[in-house]
Design goal:
It comes from Trachymyrmex cornetzi. Helix content is about 55%, strand content about 0%. By secondary structure, it is mainly alpha-helical. It folds into 2 domains: about 100 residues, no CATH class; about 140 residues, no CATH class.
Length: about 300
């Protein structure tokens, strides 16, 4: 856990900008993010990097459990400082040689990581799950329908969780078609006022005068959150099986009572749009935690959602 002088949302924005500034590969900024482009004379990268370099020595890391200062145990903060200073020195040298742009993405390890990801998808480290008969699968399915966690309310979530959840939920709502003539759908899908948990979303706005991003209703936010909780529980038992999405939806809707517009049922569309993200995140989390225990079915999900 970091301890800095910045507010959490401001710190998250700083880190987001820092990652953008070190991964740009286009001559012009993408998606309205000014740092997500190549380094050039008129780009704002150098000002951001100098700001970060002045703050890095003040950053401290603390163990959330014990409160102990563990700054000296981890070296990535120092690594950032070395990387930033190295890129600045490299850029100063390349400018003298007449280069106008520096593709920053080519300086990181993404290419190597992608290579090893492709290797893993071909079976390395995979642990094929034993074949189960139909009765066993039905038994697992019955277990998961019995142990679906309690449906959570927004008040039970901490502020930081709500920030990211609101942003992701807004992205999902923006991707679905909403009938223009249905006022009930709009009431159920969009926020009527910007509350505290929309702060991170407001930080990501492209404009200071126009709300270009989507601010979802609390109803949508909690649907996405509970989908997340239930999907993780479901995948722990059924993650290796085929037809994962359709099987999950069958289990989910058996225990779900809709509070959305009964005519258009936009919540069904939200479920369809959300599930691929959740499966991808679940598999990535499992891969990060215990890569040697993943089944071939889980690796199939990675391949489906990353290579397609």
């Amino acid at each position: 856990m970091f301890q800095t002088e910045a507010l959490p949302a401001e710190f998250v924005e700083l880190i987001d900008n820092l990652f953008d500034s070190l991964n740009g590969w286009t001559t012009l900024p993408k998606h309205g993010k000014v740092y997500n482009c190549c380094l050039q004379d008129n780009s704002p990268h150098l000002a951001l990097w100098n700001k970060v370099l002045s703050q890095l020595p003040k950053w401290e890391l603390f163990d959330k459990g014990t409160g102990k200062n563990v700054t000296n145990i981890y070296h990535f903060v120092k690594g950032w400082e070395i990387s930033i200073r190295s890129i600045i020195a490299l850029w100063n040298t390349l400018k003298v040689e007449g280069l106008k742009y520096l593709n920053l993405r080519n300086l990181n390890q993404d290419s190597v990581e992608n290579l090893f990801c492709q290797i893993r998808q071909h079976g390395v480290l995979s642990n094929t799950a034993p074949t189960k008969n139909k009765e066993d699968e039905n038994e697992d399915f019955q277990k998961i329908t019995e142990c679906i966690p309690e449906w959570k309310d927004l008040e039970k979530l901490n502020t930081n969780a709500c920030q990211a959840l609101s942003y992701v939920s807004g992205y999902i709502v923006k991707k679905i078609h909403i009938p223009d003539d249905c006022s009930q759908c709009r009431v159920h899908l969009f926020a009527t006022e910007q509350l505290q948990h929309y702060l991170f979303t407001s930080f990501k706005e492209y404009s200071l005068t126009i709300d270009a991003l989507t601010y979802p209703s609390n109803q949508v936010i909690m649907l996405v959150q509970n989908l997340y909780n239930i999907m993780y529980k479901f995948c722990d038992v059924n993650g290796h099986k085929s037809k994962l999405e359709s099987t999950f939806k069958e289990a989910f809707f058996k225990n779900y009572v809709s509070t959305f517009c009964s005519l258009h049922r936009c919540d069904n569309i939200i479920v369809d749009k959300t599930l691929p993200f959740l499966i991808f995140k679940y598999v990535k989390d499992k891969l990060k935690k215990k890569p040697w225990q993943l089944s071939s079915g889980h690796y199939g999900k990675i391949k489906h959602f990353t290579v397609a």
